[in-house]
Structures are given as C-alpha cells and as structure tokens.
Design goal:
Layout lengths: L1 H6 L2 H9 L8 H8 L5 H26 L6 H6 L3 H13 L4 E5 L5 H8 L3 E6 L2 H13 L6 E5 L12 E4 L4 E2 L2 E2 L10 H9 L4 E6 L13 E7 L2 E9 L6 E6 L3 E4 L14 E5 L1 H5 L3 H8 L2 E2 L7 E3 L8 E11 L2 H11 L1 E8 L6 H8 L5 E10 L2 E9 L2
Parallel strand pairs: 1-2, 1-4, 2-3, 4-7, 8-10, 16-17
Antiparallel strand pairs: 5-6, 7-9, 8-9, 10-11, 12-14, 12-15, 13-14, 15-18, 17-18
Helix pairs in contact: 6-7
C-alpha cells in the first residue's frame, strides 16, 4: 500500500516516467544514481512498477500498461484485454448497463466494461489490489463509470446491478486450485450470485473445469486468444445448456450441435490440429464435420482428411510421411531431407519433444513438423509441414 501511495504522488509519477524504459540489466546502476536525489523506498517502488508494466504490455498493450498500476499477482492473474473486451461486448449486446464485478483484481475486466459504456461496481477484499484498481480507473479516465470498493464479495449487495461478473481466485499458497469448491469464494457461491442477477451473469473459471461441473442452467464458453486457451466462462441468462468455443481475434464461435464422435480413418493427406478451445469444449466432432474429416484415433483430438479446407477452428498440416514410432527411422528420414528446424508436437505419446529432439539431432536448411501420436491405437509418427 505504501509503495502505491508513493507512486501516486507528483514525485512518484515523475520518477515512473523517468524509469519507464529501464533495461533490467541496468537497474542497479539506475537505482544507485536515482537514490542520490530520491528516497530509496520510492526508487525501489518505481523500478518495481516499471518491471511490472513491461510484463503487462503483452496483456494490456503498451498504451494502457504504461499508465496503469500493477501488483505481481495482478499481472499474472488479470484477464487479457482482448478477452475482457470481447466479454464486455457480450454483456452490452445483452442489454446490460451495470455490472457488479466481484473479485475485480487490478480492474482489467472493469476497464473493458466501462469502455463498453457499462457502469461498474468493482469489488476486491485485498486493500492493495483494490487501491490499484481505483488508481487504474483514474489513470485511464474511467473513474466516472467505475466505483471500486474494498470488501468481501460475499457481503456485497448486488441487487442494484443488471448483471454480475465474478472471477474467483483459483490460486492458493501451493499454486493452482483445481477443485471449483476450493476457489475463493467457492464456485457454488458464485453460481448462486449469478442466478440472482436480474439480466445476465458470467463466471470466469479455469479452462480445465470438468464438463459435469457445469450447471444445467448455464451456457459454457471456452475462449482462446491467438491459439492459446485463456479461460472458460459460465454464462447465465443466455442459452442454458449451450456449449461454445470462441476464438480471438475475430471472434469466431463454434457451437455444439450434439454430434456423435467422428469415425476413425487412416491418415489422409492433411492433418488438422483443432484449436485448444475447441478441444476443451469437446467440439472436435463439430470441427471435423466442417472438414469432412475423421479421427486418427478414437481417443486423440487430431482430425485427418484428404481435402484442404480453410477453417478458423483448426490448423492444417500437409502430411508427407506416416511411420510407426521408431527414433532411428525418424533420424534417418530427417537427415535425408535436410531438416534442421524441427517442430515436435505430441498427443497420446509419452515421449517428450525435447527428448526426441536430442536423439534425432536435426541438421539442415529445411523445416518440418513431426506429430507423435497414435493411429488406430498404435504409436505412430506423422511428418509434414504447416499449410499457410
């Protein structure tokens, strides 16, 4: 709290601007110089905040990150700006004009909601986190739409708001928490709060949540950004029972249609690797139908087809070789082809990519991708290249 208070003073803001582009390797020299003119505590706080801002650029973009205030946990756990903006648009499209943002963190989602024209009550029980959220609302010119309250979210009355957004803490002293009832607050409490919302609600949860843990009256959405799965969201007040995978940028959304599992087929000319959100949402069958494809193995999420079809829901590779798993044969093949840039992907194989790379020692000017997987239950290697 004291560090943040120091940084919010005119001297602190000026010092933050001065150290903004400090190279981490030069921090000691910069700190030594600045401590001749500024309190050591302020210099340490400014350099620490500069480091956090540099790390936050990937999530918030340089323009916002350079003005915002972060905590270490806030950088790690906050929602990526593109994902928060997408969710805010969904709220706005549902006619929501006010949201109670519970467990708001440093305010990433509150900022996106406010920029969508939605009035926000942002609540967090941690004093430093709430102070950072308040400072961020002011720094970005959104204080008129965002009220930040330091409180226990379970004691906050949300009756005056159209909607609820909750992001329960999924990390503890020992790392990630996988049991939804061990979230803080528990998922069951968040679901109850969501069901009381007059118009809509969204609960951010871990993308690995079991499908059986999704309430029957909720819509489940898995979101990826740039191919990386970021989160799952339970929506209330939308389409109960619906399941979707949403890919950003776009957005592109694939909806569940209750299709049976695709047939298992021999490897065709192309292998399709579904986006992680499609896999998490159990929508590989829907993606395969669009591709007129089948599975390499009944338990593996690789789709094969003889047709090359553009799709946002999977990455296509042209397969040149299909071999039973054999390191010596792979090494010989790669040497023959002059492959030095080797990408190793695996699904359904116990072999680690780096372990294989050390054994085959790729050398040469060409590039290839090898898939370590199973084909109809048998360990196999498929070699090819990505279709651009």
């Amino acid at each position: 709290m004291n560090d943040l208070a120091l940084l919010l003073t005119p001297e602190g803001r000026a010092l933050l601007e001065e150290v903004r582009d400090t190279d981490p390797a030069q921090e000691l020299a910069v700190a030594t110089r600045l401590r001749r003119e500024h309190p050591a505590e302020l210099v340490s706080a400014a350099l620490g905040q500069a480091r956090l801002r540099q790390r936050a650029v990937v999530k918030f973009g340089a323009e916002d990150a350079e003005r915002m205030f972060f905590t270490p946990n806030g950088v790690e756990q906050s929602t990526r700006a593109s994902v928060a903006a997408y969710r805010a648009r969904r709220f706005a499209e549902l006619g929501v004009t006010s949201v109670a943002d519970l467990c708001c963190g440093i305010g990433g989602d509150a900022i996106a909601l406010a920029r969508a024209g939605i009035r926000v009550l942002a609540v967090d029980r941690d004093p430093l986190t709430a102070a950072a959220a308040r400072a961020n609302a002011e720094a970005l010119g959104l204080a008129g739409l965002i009220e930040v309250r330091e409180a226990d979210v379970t004691e906050v009355d949300t009756a005056g708001y159209d909607a609820v957004f909750a992001d329960p803490a999924r990390r503890g002293g020992r790392g990630r928490i996988f049991d939804p009832e061990a979230y803080s607050p528990p998922l069951s409490w968040a679901v109850s709060a969501a069901r009381r919302a007059p118009r809509a609600a969204a609960l951010k949860i871990a993308p690995g949540v079991p499908h059986e843990a999704v309430p029957e009256d909720a819509e489940a959405e898995w979101i990826s950004d740039g191919g990386d799965v970021k989160e799952a969201v339970l929506w209330f007040g939308t389409e109960p029972g619906a399941v979707r995978a949403t890919l950003l940028p776009g957005p592109r959304t694939l909806l569940a249609r209750g299709l049976p599992d695709p047939d298992v087929r021999p490897p065709g000319r192309y292998l399709y690797e579904p986006d992680g959100a499609v896999i998490r949402a159990h929508l590989v069958a829907e993606a395969a139908e669009e591709l007129d494809g089948g599975l390499l193995d009944a338990t593996i999420a690789y789709v094969t087809s003889d047709a090359l079809r553009p799709t946002p829901y999977a990455t296509a590779y042209e397969i040149t070789d299909h071999l039973p798993f054999n390191v010596k044969k792979l090494k010989a093949l790669l040497r023959e082809r002059g492959v030095g840039n080797l990408t190793v992907k695996k699904r359904g194989s116990a072999v680690e990519p780096e372990e294989l790379r050390k054994k085959v020692k790729p050398q040469g000017p060409h590039a290839a991708t090898v898939f370590l997987t199973r084909v109809a239950g048998a360990p196999a290697m498929l070699i090819g290249h990505r279709c651009e």
